[in-house]
Amino acid sequence: MTLVLTEFVTLDGVSQGPGSPTEDTSDGFTRGGWLVPFIDVMFVRRTSEWLDLAEGLLLGRRTYEAFARDWPRIVDPDDPFTERMNSLPKYVVSRTVSEGDWQPTTVLRAFAGVEELKARSGGELQVHGSARLGNALLGAGLVDVVRLVVAPTVIGAGRRLFEQPADSAGLKLTKHEATPSGLMLLEYETVGAAAVGEYEGVSAFV
After folding, report:
1. What number of other Cβ atoms are within 10 A of residue 55's Cβ?
2. DSSP character at residue 195
3. Fold (topology level) of 2-194
4. What is the pLDDT of residues 3-15, one digit of tens each?
């Protein structure tokens, strides 16, 4: 399977609490809900299309517990995500979770389990939220695709998506579009370590 990291971020790189002021208040964070003003029809359509590609969800403990609490409570028959989120296989990378009650759930104790999932044939193994896990997976070279939804806002506080990567990561932009509300939808393939160079003047590039 292809491991895809899907994250919502602000222009200053914050990924914490996009959906609600009370979604994630850890470390005293009070500025959640920053994505909501920019949600539009195109955003919903694209994210639904992305979820169609998923054959499993890979989550960290914190995100898993929040999703397991919230998604089963959504009963709106017109919600385009609920049925798939609740029915897809869930894989939790955690040393403290013993079993999951949001079925079907499998607990993975180490990245070796992630590598085994990636070795299977099929569609996408998607990471949603779980920024710490995504950061670690990227640093370990296990992420194949990075999808970012960038909100046109700077909130100045909160947990950043890529605060302390283990290693550099090179990315190749493969898709990009803007929604009517101003969200940037960006898709990258990972290409190993980040490239570096030395500027030698404009003539070297023309």
Report:
1. 16
2. P
3. Dihydrofolate Reductase, subunit A (3.40.430)
4. 999 999 999 999 9
